[in-house]
Amino acid sequence: MRHHHLVVGLTILAIALFSGIVRAETRPFTVHDLVAMQRIADPQPSPEGDQVAFTVTTMDLEANKGRKDVWLAAMDGSGARPLTSHPDNDWEPRWAVDGSLYFLSDRSGSAQVWRLSPSGGDPRQVTELPLDVQVLQVDPTNSALYVAIAVYPDCGDSLACTVERLEEHSQRQASGMIFDRLFVRHWDSWKDGRRNHVFRIPIGPQGSPSGTPVDLMAGVDGDCPTLPFGDGGDFTISPDGAWLVYTAKVVPGSEEAWSTDLDLWAVPTDGSAPARCLTEPNRGEDRAPAFSPDGSRLAYLAMSRPGYEADRRRVVVMGWPAGSSTVLTEPWDRSPSEIAWSPDGASLYVTADNIGNHSIFRVAAATGDITALVTRHFNSNPRPLADGSLVFAQDSLVSPAELFILGNAGSIPRQITRLNDKLLADLEFGEYRQFSFSGAHNEEVFGYLVYPVGFDPGRTYPLAFVVHGGPQGSSDDHWHYRWNPQIYAGHGYAAVMIDFHGSTGYGQAFTDAIRDDWGGAPFEDLMKGLDDVLRRHKWIDADRMAAAGASYGGYMINWIQGNTDRFRALVCHDGNLDELMAYFDTEELWFPEWEHLGTPWDNPDGYRKHSPINLIQHWSTPQLVIHGARDYRVVDTQGIATFNALQRRGVPSRLLYFPDENHWVLKPLNSIQWHEVVLDWMDRWTAVTPVDDG
Known about the structure:
Strand order of the largest sheet: 1-34-35-37-36-38-39-40-41
Number of strands: 41
Strand content: 25-35%
Number of helices: 12
Largest sheet: 9 strands, mixed
Structural class: alpha+beta
């Protein structure tokens, strides 16, 4: 599960953000439009800085999955075009110094490295490894490729060893799996002993392999990229190509399940010495290493408190190869999530949640002085250019991600891709407004209100009250592909989202406040925020409200079920019913141990006091329960148990169960079904005359 000034009370007209074209005929946004959007990710500027390559995901309804292609656009916004269009997936473009592009593709039957020229011609397969390549980077000297491959750690450089073991496992007639340590499974995968390791593959002048892959993590019982959400940002190569610095959690035995001690490790790329730990003194998380352009410094992000996955990240700069470390952002009450050096080495660019937005900041490398560059909306993937400009992705509550460029501090970002403009021009979105109110502890709490499409102040409207997960997360100005409030606005609802105590982007104390208080201050914030909205907006019908959420939001729906009857309908996706039992059937044990002040045997009351299972006797609100069979973070029996309780209590209820989904709903047809079932449930109970058809 994850303020400093007055709110900017801006009403934003949807269509103005993405196009200067207003068509006479528009229609409300629907889930089918959501699935049809092209999804931009991973922008990579060319060495000359005149072009940017990126990945575009398109949903293939016939195949019921997403398909990825590599695209290219000029920095002036012209000529956006696909470089690949194969029925299989092409992704993760990486530039070579000669201007060619490497990328990953599974078009040969497994994920391998391919190469193409942006000027034209067919792609050429570069690697033919016996195992899938997961992540790709190109050596700054253009002498090697660095790839991540899942291998058995004791196999060393021998990929054949891992292949042989996998074949042996597949030939066994007995199906039993034996485990001697945790993890047994993690998020949506069972553990089989393999680890993600970084391999170096030498390449020649023509970009083809000139030697065998070398496991630079041979024997390491840890993963890079880290699981489950790590990527290429988990390792970096020095500008001279001599060093690999990677992120990994290397801890004894089962401690992996309750430790957050990720460290940075350095190893010579020629394999001449074993890896050494760079961050041993810090028992919290260290990650996102990035060498300065001249190779004299290494920057990274660090948490200080062990066992806490939502601690504030600091920007740390270490002299290389053996200099001291300096924390640049200790006074700054924000938690960066990405980091990138400016080409001149004078500053770093970071992103961080920031008062209901995800903003870009510049950090002076010498002083730690911080300058806000882009504060509104959700901004990610900052990529600095040699001329001082910055390429990044931006999305909002009314627009999916597109690429933008910022010329200099104080300038207005300029949009350089418009992949979804044609579709967006036909759609109408609800206006949205950020607001604030006095919440728990008399502290300022923020939220968003999204108006129904075609809003008429003379009418009344039902409300969709959406609770975010985490709980250390945010209902920010962000384009979501599941909990998108515009779906409800297009369906005739107002939508409200509250960043309760525990949310990110409002200072670390605000984030920390949810610890040992899951059903306390957050619930108070939600109810006070709802009261504030209803007081200010009389057109919202207080008798026709539905609340919905997933993960911690799903937990909160079960908590709401036992603490108030002000909603006509509830929707719980992947939510815990019993916090005590949830400890024993989840996998990342550090999470509940931090949130509930220890283990269940040391502090059972910490788990019981905010557990929805203790309030089932008060349940009466019609509730939809949704769960995925492959959710090992919040296991499916929590959802089934919730449905059992509702049915046994005689509360109108329905279970939507996905045998092929995990903590999220990823397949497009499943997403359509999810939205249709949720809207049908909400419509049934928030109608002027609710319909209970059994």
